[in-house]
């Protein structure tokens, strides 16, 4: 395992291939070992920028350890989360209706009414608006496929 200290003690030319490989190995190691690197939303992105630019260190030095950064990061993550965030679970009625839909749907082919139903249900559960889909078959490659995957996961997690 390579540490930052090993990199600091390196005596050779820092432009050499050997040094670059050591540095890359250290970066790869730190990327796989830290769970703090998971970006949950805007707050994490802004915190990373503050770390890289040195602003975070200055704020900690001036304001101390409790500068309110953690609370602000959490509020921003909740305000603008990364990815799709499920707002609520399916009701029992939606669960039954979606189960019937799953049993009758054909892979790779959806009718316009089925797409309307899916997008309406997805909007209710994920609180995410969708533009009207013109070509249902083209939509299967993108947005509708994404919604199907998320709704299937929600359906499978129902009552767990």
Description:
The chain is mainly alpha-helical and 160 residues long. It folds into three domains: 1-34; 37-83, no CATH class; 92-157, no CATH class. Helix content is 63%, strand content 0%. It has nine helices and no strands. The chain has helices at residues 4-8, 17-33, 42-53, 55-63, 69-79, 92-104, 112-126, 136-139, 143-157. The protein is elongated, with a radius of gyration of 24 Å.
Main features:
mainly alpha; 160 residues; single chain
Rg for CA atoms: 24 Å
Helix and strand string, N-terminal first? HHHHHHHHH
Helix content: 55-70%
Give the percentage of residues in beta strands. under 5%
Mean pLDDT: 78
Tell me, what's the shape? elongated
Structural class: mainly alpha
Low-confidence blocks of residues:
31-36
**How far apart are the first and last residues' alpha carbons, in Å?**
41 Å
For the biggest sheet, the summary is: none
> Helical segment tally?
9
Q: Write down the domain tally.
A: 3
Number of strands: 0
Could you give the topology of this structure?
Blueprint: H1 4-8, H2 17-33, H3 42-53, H4 55-63, H5 69-79, H6 92-104, H7 112-126, H8 136-139, H9 143-157
Helix pairs in contact: 3-5, 7-9
